[in-house]
Design goal:
The chain is of the alpha/beta class. The chain has helices spanning 60-74, 90-95, 111-120, 140-145, 172-181, 199-211, 248-252, 263-269, 274-279, and strands at 5-10, 15-29, 34-40, 45-49, 52-56, 80-85, 103-108, 133-137, 152-158, 182-191, 216-223, 231-238.
């Protein structure tokens, strides 16, 4: 904070992103991380974790929709979904828009993110009391290692950048645990950072997914102003289904509203820029 601006500096990439703030609404140190919440002039409420922006009221729909709908419209009939992380419950809200979903189990390690999001971002909690939702506050990596084989249709890894305990969510062993828990047509999707800044990380993720026996991987870029470079991505892996195949008719005539996602956006996101294709050969 300086002169009423919140700035996140990306030292390794020589860049920064700033938002003008009106007030700091909350700050606390949990056993896991430091959480700050601000009221900004143009992006609504802002939540930061250890000095890094987690979400804003203004643009979180981009991330939450792209973490949810592409993978759910790729699976032929998603019924059982697991979210690792996702404590703000925005991804949970989007998943529960799908009528095929019978149960969503969300495992987030820090309950305070959920409770503070409930207070300051109530729009993200519209569906958190849905009877299909089950919230656990525990280590999602450990939870996945003990999951019943073949019991899950879709796994969404809504985690942070791979530092500290989050590093385990980017390993071959974790992907093997996910593979084991997934049904034959199962799919995994994971936040995979900026294609401009973190291409080597994305390549390493895809390699680890393939090493864990996933047959197909696709990286879907999308805009995200509040994250480093303004460009984000999610990487999807499948056991059998080519991740480029999706239920286009269902996506085109979906029975719920979105602000960013639609069938054309889904199809376009599967087309990567040439510099990404060269790395992913």
């Amino acid at each position: 904070m300086a002169d009423n601006w919140f700035t996140e500096v990306s030292i390794n990439n020589g860049s920064a992103f700033s938002l003008q703030v009106k007030a700091k609404l909350h700050e606390e140190q949990t056993p896991y991380q430091r959480i700050e919440i601000y009221d900004t002039t143009h992006f609504g409420k802002l939540m930061a974790i250890d000095g890094c922006i987690l979400l804003s009221s203004h643009d979180n729909f981009l991330y939450h929709e792209m973490m949810s709908h592409p993978v759910l419209f790729t699976h032929p009939n998603p019924k059982y979904v697991v979210i690792i992380g996702g404590g703000d419950c925005g991804t949970l809200r989007e998943v529960l828009k799908h009528s095929t979903v019978i149960k969503v189990t969300q495992i987030a390690i820090d309950e305070r993110i959920t409770r503070l999001a409930e207070q300051y971002f109530p729009e993200l909690h519209e569906a958190s009391r849905d009877p299909r939702a089950e919230l656990w506050f525990a280590d999602g990596i450990q939870w996945m290692s003990g999951a019943k084989p073949g019991s899950v249709d879709v796994i969404i890894v809504d985690s942070t950048y791979p530092v500290g305990s989050a590093e385990q969510a980017f390993t071959e062993q974790f992907y093997r645990d996910c593979y084991k828990a997934l049904s034959p047509e199962g799919l995994l999707i994971q936040r995979s950072e900026s294609p401009l800044y973190h291409l080597n990380l994305i390549k390493a993720m895809r390699d680890a997914m393939h090493a864990a026996e996933f047959s197909h991987t696709y990286t879907l870029p999308f805009p995200q102003p509040i994250y480093p470079s303004g460009w984000m991505s999610a990487t999807m892996a499948s056991k059998e289904i080519p991740a480029g195949d999706f239920r286009q008719q269902d996506a085109a005539y979906k029975a719920f509203e979105t602000r960013y996602y639609n069938a054309a956006i889904h199809k376009a996101a599967l087309a990567n820029p040439q510099f990404m294709n060269e790395i992913f050969k």
